[in-house]
Amino acid sequence: MDECLAGHPPKTFPGALVQDPCGQALFGTLVEGLADRFEPALCDAYARLFSQAVAQAVEGLDAAALVARYDRVRRVRPVAGRPRRVFILSRVTLGADVAVTSVMLAAAKKRFPQASIVFVGPRKNFELFAADRRIHHAEVAYRRGSLRERLAAWEELKGALTATDSAVIDPDSRLTQLGLLPVCSEDHYHLFESRGYGGESDRPLPDLAADWVEKTLGIAGAKPYVAPGPAPSQAPYVAVSLGVGENPAKRLPDPFEEELLRLLAGRGMPLYIDRGAGGEEAERVKRAVDRSGAKVTFWDGSFAGFAAIVTGAKLYVGYDSAGQHVAAAAGVPLIGIFAGFPAPRMFERWRPTGPHCTVIRVDRPDVEETLARVQSAMGNQVVQGRNS
Q1: What residues contact residue 355 under an 8 Å CB cut-off, 6+ apart?
Q2: Which residues contact 25 (CB under 8 A, 6 or more apart)?
């Protein structure tokens, strides 16, 4: 990783990282470390190194051929003809499917009004768009773990994309390992290389995705959206998520979370809070609630169910997570606490955008300072928010 960041990536991939026990090191350190910096040169380093990893794990694959194909398919070009099916691959992470993939869904619906628009990926991700009758689903699971476990989705994915009268839109999906794995004819395949697209600019990913679909599909002004179903209540409430997607660097130290909940509860509106996927995160949320003394309604169901709660909220507050992208897409005023990013450009790319988005960039984890900034933002949202 250090050699890649220094501009001198190793020529040979270390074979030990292909072994099953090394999955976290390979993906958590190397793959995500290269991707999260959004440096175009690191896209090349990733392609050259990871293609070797895949070739070591799958008999019969040639690393050089994978890289050559990757160089071809990442070039932006318009979709030709009138495909009867448009397959749009999931990014697998929920926030990315809102911020990026949904832009492509929205554009595809406009460009191909008679075509079947198919979201390809896990069911929990599709549920964010399940209320949109134009969007169909081809379920492909993705198991996080070793390289071989993650590559298991490849065969299933290729089987789902057999239609010849189709186009495949890849928003830098983990299903294809960021575009490296061939899943269909190159003529029908279009890759949005989100890590390099936009170059040295600081434009956020939804804007870059919209720019890409304008050049690829000819549709201008596409924006993120969600369609998870109706909100649970018409009364004003605040939706809260303290989830960090297994990345503890995104959260601030105690007692930030309990003080945040106490501050929000002091505004007099009910709080809906997502308890997450269970385990340590749910226990952490419960402790923060107990210590704050706030009266809250917990959500323990699917993320799509919580997304529906977010779409009906007067205000959303949370760390950098999927919830903030749902709020931004739904036009809900939000306060995002954004910490733990490895490079400034990651903050710029992933920050939610919109007329009522307040994003608090945390460069150092100062609890009192961040709480003061949240309190100031809450006053601004009362004045400017859509429901004020």
Answers
A1: 331, 384
A2: 17
Give the chain's domains with CATH numbers. Answer: 2-71 (no CATH), 85-217 (3.40.50.2000), 238-384 (3.40.50.2000)
**How many alpha carbons fall within 13 Å on the CB side of residue 356?**
25
Residues 315-374: pLDDT tens digits? 999 999 999 999 999 999 999 999 999 999 999 999 998 889 999 999 999 999 999 999
Region of 276 please: left (phi>0), alpha (psi -120 to 50) or beta.
Answer: left
What are the Cα distances from residue 380, in Å, to 115, 319, 333?
Answer: 43, 19, 10
Task: Using 50 as the pLDDT threshold, list the residues of the chain that sit under it.
Answer: 383-388
Residues 233 and 343: their CA atoms lie apart, in Å, by 39
List C-alpha distances in Å: 87 to 30, 31, 118, 126, 261: 29, 25, 5, 13, 41
Helix runs in 274-388, H state only: 279-292, 303-311, 322-330, 344-350, 367-384
Q: Closest Cα to residue 145, out of 302, 9, 20?
A: 20
For residue range 149-182, list pLDDT tens digits in order: 999 999 999 999 988 899 999 999 999 999 999 9
Residues in the chain: 388
Neighbours of 338 (CB within 10 A): 20
Tell me the H-state helices in the chain.
Answer: 2-5, 23-24, 32-35, 40-57, 63-73, 94-96, 102-111, 123-126, 147-160, 205-217, 256-265, 279-292, 303-311, 322-330, 344-350, 367-384
Average pLDDT, the chain: 94
Q: What is the CA radius of gyration of the chain?
A: 21
Helix (H, G, I), strand (E, B) or coil at 336: strand
Structure tokens given for 3:
């050699």
pLDDT value at residue 115: 97
